[in-house]
């Protein structure tokens, strides 16, 4: 995933999948699409948010690491909820999803600013 366009498309696709999942949960949709989107979102979004800030070389390695990091983060949250005797997985999913989405949006914003600065000619007097 060294191509920046592929990175952007992947991040936007994950953000869209997270938004669709959140809307389905909010409106109470229980059709066959909801479990698929929920599993894909849970399995990739948190790990992808972390990996967005690291250099990428291989899609297969990125995919495996994203799944592993996502499952590790969700396990930590589940253990914390169990130890604290405060079992609210909806809240935990919301916190993890919001933090991951914010990280991806921030990464997209940083990339777009970097790309805009690279395109502008030096000394053009534009705003930073």
Summarize the SSE layout with pairings.
Elements lengths: L3 H24 L5 H19 L7 H25 L5 H31 L9
Helix pairs in contact: 1-2, 1-4, 2-3, 2-4, 3-4
Query: Could you give the distance between the termini?
Result: 28 Å
Number of domains: 1
**What is the H-and-E element order?**
HHHH
Oligomer: single chain
Percent in strands: under 5%
Describe the 3D structure:
This protein is mainly α and 128 residues long. It has one domain (4-115). It has helices at residues 4-27, 33-51, 59-83, 89-119. It is globular, with a radius of gyration of 17 Å. The relative contact order is 0.14.
Using brief descriptors, characterize the structure shown:
77% helix, mainly alpha, 128 residues
Q: In summary, what is this structure?
A:
This protein is mostly helical and 128 residues long. The protein has four helices and no strands. 19% of the residues are buried.
